[in-house]
# Entry
Amino acid sequence: ALLDPGPRGEVARRLARVDHLAPDACGSRVAGSALPPGARLAGSLVLDATVTDALDLEGAVVLGGACARLEAAPGAVALAPTARALRLGADALAYRSVGDALEVPAGWVHASLPDDPAAPAGPLADWWAAAAEDPAKEPRWSAPCWGNPRAFRDELARVRARALPPAAVDAEVDRAHRAPLRARLAEG
# Structure
C-alpha cells in the first residue's frame, strides 16, 4: 500500500510517516539512504538504506539495511537486510536477512535467526516460508518444512525459553554478524 499512488497509498504513507517524501520523476521516494551511481529505481520506496555497488528496484520497498548489490521485483520488501548480494522475486520478503549471496524467490519469505536463541553470536539459520501459506497450520506447524532446521512450533518454544530479551538478541546478532559484514561492504 505504501507505493499505491491513490488514496490507499496516501493513508499508508501518512501512517508510516513518509507522506512528506515527494516522488521523483520515476515515482520513487528515497530518504536517509546512500545509493550507488547509476542506481535504477522505479516506483519504489527506500528509507535509511545503504547500497554500495548496484541497485535495481521496481515497485519495491527497502527499509534500512546495507547491501553491496540489491535487486527487487515488484511487490518485494526488504526489511533491514545485510548482504553482499540480495535478489528478491516478486512479492518476496527479506526480514533481517544476513548473508553473502541471498536469493528470495517470488512469493517467499526469508529471515536469518540465531540457530541457538541462547547464543545469538553463534551461527545464523536461514528460515523460509511460502508467503501464501500459513506456517501455523498443520502439517507445517509441527514438522520441519521448506528446508527449515526445525518445526515452527519447536522454534517458537526455543525462542520463548531464551533468557535474553529480544533487544539484546538483536544487538548481539548485529555485533557478531551484521556489523562485520557491513564493514566488509564498506571496504569494497
User: Anything to note?
Assistant: The mean pLDDT is 94. Residues 166-187 form the longest helix (22 residues).
